[in-house]
Amino acid sequence: MPTFNIGDFAKEKKRLLQQIVMKNRGIKGLEDELWKNKTKELSRMKVKCQRLDEKVEKIVKEVEGLQEVKDELDQEAKGSSEHGSNSTEKSRWRIPTYSQDGKISVSAALARKRRKATFEAARKIHGGKDELSAPGPIGLIDTALAKCSKDILVNSMSSSTKFLN
Fold it and tell me: Where is the composition biased (Basic and acidic residues) (predicted)?
């Protein structure tokens, strides 16, 4: 009758159990390594997200600042087109337009420039759409009739050949 070798059986069993344990440790080690890698990757993504949020916030602040600058420039442009710049106003005060014996006291070029600016302002105020529309001139005449004295109107109009004709 054949004999069963218990020693060989025990050794083989021990060897197989060690292989299983080593495989399990290897799997557990791989799981731990994978977990560490994913945790590091997640941490890097969070840091990157924070940096991007800071960049977006910085850009938003810059855009808001630019909008404020644009609004200020628009307001200055609107103010200067309505009221003239300070240097232009000072120049107008130093050399006012007035009539001596029916003649304008400023140069012809300056008189043309001032008439153009006055007419443009009147056109905008009274609702004219282009340079040839009627609201601007009608508004100017109405204002002159309402605000000017008879002497100024008579002196200015009587020296104008266009008005006399």
Answer: 70-81
The total of structural domains in the chain comes to 2
Alpha-carbon span 117 to 140, nearest angstrom: 12
Task: Give the tokens for residue 25.
Answer: 């440790």
pLDDT in tens, 94-120: 666 666 665 666 777 777 888 888 888
Contacts of 163 (CB under 8 A, 6+ apart): 157
Range of the domain at 19: 7-77
Look at residue 143 and tell me if it is in a domain. Answer: yes
DSSP state of 128: -
Note whether residue 105 is domain-resident: no
List of residues 6+ apart from 139 with CB closer than 8 A:
122, 125, 126
Please count the other Cβ atoms lying within 10 Å of the Cβ belonging to residue 50: 10
Residues 11 and 70 in one domain: yes
The helix-helix angle for 108-126 and 135-147 (nearest 10°) equals 100
What are the φ/ψ torsions at residue 105 (nearest 5 degrees)? -80, -10
In this structure, are 12 and 73 located in the same domain?
yes
With respect to residue 145, please indicate whether it lies within any of the assigned structural domains.
yes
Does the model's pTM come out above 0.85?
Answer: no
